[in-house]
Amino acid sequence: MQSTDLPLFPLSAVLLPYGRVPLQIFEQRYLDLVRDCMKNDSGFGVVWIRRGEEVIRAGQGRQQLGEVGTMARIIDWDQLANGLLGITIEGGERFDLGATRIAANGLVLGEASIRESPAPAPVADMWSSLRDILESLGEHPQVRRMGLAIDPDDAWQLGYGLAQLLPLDESLKYELLTLDNADQLLDQLDLMLSEISGEA
């Protein structure tokens, strides 16, 4: 694993590999982060906030972060109607998060061991329904605008892409992010979908 000191963007949402998430940037520490990443063509780490708020105010405790995060790169940006900077990020490699510290500007930095991207894995016939769900979601105008480039024949991309798009609880998305086996990823995702269907 490659280890590095990584700037972090803690979120109440989970970013998965191959997934895309729009963000509104208004805190100065994150405006600085976006500027540096765009200037240096570099990325940053997104970690899920297990407990705490995205915006830390005086007197609040520190955030409790997930131990596994996702590398993010900025693929689009624009000034929003409300005057804020809007960016779209795409998930890349996963990383294991070690010790964290707070920089002078309030940005969270972490010791990150970046994992290699897993090799493509075939999608077994038993998961063809998941491929169909991804295909139907891809027809939605909002999903089309995201311009996702997901290979439905790669189990990793299929699983991560579906998990990012579906209205799953963030704790479940984080659980999927931590899995290291493609078949287990699709099996757990199928189980979660079955539970959703049963509740509907």
UniProtKB/TrEMBL annotation:
Gene Ontology terms describing biological process: proteolysis
MF terms (GO), sorted A to Z: peptidase activity
Keywords: Hydrolase, Protease
Lon N-terminal domain segment(s): 6-197
A Pfam family the protein falls into: LON_substr_bdg
Name this protein carries in UniProt: ATP-dependent protease
Organism per entry: Kineobactrum salinum
